[in-house]
Amino acid sequence: MQELYLKLINLGLNILKVDKLKYFILKNEEFRLKYIDLVNDILTLEKNHNQNLEDKVFGTTFAKALISITKQTNKQRFETKDHIKVEDIETNYNQLVSYIVKTFKVVKSKLVSLNEEISEEIINKNATLTDQVISKVEARIAKQEQVKESVTDKTSEQVKTSQTEQVEVQMVQPIEQIEQKQTSQQADFLNSFNPNMFANLNNAELPVLPSQDPRFYPYKGKPKFMPYLKIVLCVLAVLSTILLASSLLYLSYTTIDISSNSFANIIESNKNWDELFKVGDKEILKKFPIGISQITLMFIRGFGLPILIYMIPTILICTYTKKSLSNPREKYRIPLFPIIFFIMFFIGLTVNLYEFTSLEKFKDAWQKALMAFTSKNDIDINKFFESILKTHIQKFQLGVGLVLSSLVVTILTLLLAVVLIIVNPKLDREKIMKATLEHQKAVMAIMQGQRYEMDPSLYEEDEVEIKHPSKLKLFFLKLKNKNKKEDSKDTNN
Fold first, then answer.
1. Residue 60 CB neighbours (<10 A)
2. Whole-angstrom Cα distance, residue 47 to residue 38?
3. Which of 62, 61, 66 is nearest to 76 (CA)?
4. Angle at 482 between CA 477 and CA 486, to 5 degrees
5. Burial of residue 4 (number of CB atoms within 10 Å: 0-12, 13-18, 19+)
6. What is the pLDDT of residue 81?
7. 3-state helix, strand and coil shares in percent for the chain, rounded to the nearest 5
């Protein structure tokens, strides 16, 4: 029963947090009565079932909030429901949430979300409805009405166009058939459409397009493991990025001084670097990167800043994942573009690092670099590299270990990304077509002054899980409130 009480007071506060809903409490009598009923349910749980939150009750506070919004001069009656069952209160709660979602197009998660703190001050703060807010909401409603009118104009134009096309077809028929056809078609047209259909369309609220309704899920299947896989992908992506960045920085900024002419003599006897070095800046010999390559030279020239570019795919994936987990439509899937971009980017990094996975590959990289700097094609790298390893082998071994670790984690990340693409739900085109048809039927019914309920099976109603505070969290909230009280007492003293 405590959970039900938490649901009710959170819903009561969440409604007050939405300006549009406060506006309709003031303007819409049906909704105002439903909110009063919610307050009565809260009062019933508090008085008849001894429910409270940290020894505080909020029924009276919500009642005062409603009076503050409506500015009623006559006395509003709030009362407990002595004979109502707890199950009926739960039903009232669910019906109110569904009513608000359907009538006022408010996302369900915004209504049922758990507030970190509920107090009389917070409720009173959200119970204000200024003239400025009213004007803002009314302007938004007026804009929606303009959209409806434009839809009406388009529909009217389509009907006229249809009539014109019918007449043009009739002109090629025998004269005797024209009068009969016109009479028949005019009768059919008048029977099919209510004369007041455009007025009906203006006065009614058009149903939301399925593509704009957060409850509509247009994909096939909901892999329950998908949210967890996306979180794992984010963790692996962050780890891969850290290791890849560390590897590139280590290969670029771990250097060896080979400017001594003794190294030049190994390449060619009785020669110094002034004679051998033909291309580039000879200063690089004093700080020769152990992972010499085009990409490490780019890092050195850019003072390591290009590493920020390699963080972009991970930032994109993690940002999208965080947003999608709270969006029912995107929770169980992942868009192809960011994941493919992510895969291609990491494959490029993997290829660049592959040439430093062993001492032999380091030696090949050095040979290519020295051949480019000296314009010589016959360098015996073995003796040269052996002399380097005598005093610097640990640097190269650490580089190999770091690169291999990076590649292992990166490959796992790429494999998981591929798995996500494979299990990614595809568009359910049949469902989309059905939803579009249902929407068209609903619009046509409104035009004819009728009411048509769209198929409820098209929409998801059970996506939001209400998380109630644990005992530990309630303890800390209570402690926090006590500290606030003590601080306020000290201030008053």
1. 14
2. 14
3. 66
4. 150
5. middle
6. 83
7. 70, 0, 25
**Residue 223 — φ and ψ, nearest 5°?**
-60, 115
Q: Is 424 left (phi over 0), alpha (psi -120 to 50) or beta?
A: beta
CA neighbours within 13 Å on the CB side: how many for 282? 12
Per-residue DSSP letter, 433: H
The reported pLDDT for the residue numbered 231 is 92
How many residues are recorded in the chain?
Answer: 493
DSSP letters for 252-271: HH-EE---SHHHHHHHSTT-
Q: CA-to-CA distance for 455 and 439, rounded, in angstroms?
A: 9
Single-letter code of the amino acid located at 370? L
pLDDT value of position 78: 82
CA nearest neighbour of 236 among 422, 420, 409, 418: 409
pLDDT score at 403: 93
Cα(366)–Cα(291) distance, rounded to whole angstroms? 8
pLDDT, residue 401, reads 94
The pLDDT value recorded for residue 171 is 43
Q: Is the pTM of this model over 0.85?
A: no
pLDDT, one tens digit per residue, over 137-180 is 888 777 766 666 665 555 556 545 544 544 344 444 443 443 44
* Alpha-helix residue ranges (DSSP H) falling in 355-467: 359-374, 381-423, 429-447
> What pLDDT shows up at residue 485?
52
How far is residue 444 CA from its own chain's centroid?
34
Tokens matching residue 1: 């029963």
Residues 6+ apart with CB under 8 A from 428: 218, 219, 220
Q: Which residues of the chain have pLDDT under 50?
A: 159, 162-163, 165-183, 185-196, 199-200, 203, 462-468
Q: How far apart are the C-alpha atoms of 285 and 268, rounded to whole Å? A: 16
Mean pLDDT of the chain: 78
Q: Which residue has the tokens 């929770």?
A: 331
Radius of gyration of the chain measured on its C-alpha atoms: 36
Token pair 């609220």 in the structure block, residue: 205
DSSP string, 290-304: TT-SHHHHHHHHTTT
User: Whole-angstrom Cα distance, residue 160 to residue 483?
Assistant: 71
Residues 176, 177, 179, 183, Cα dihedral to 10°: 150
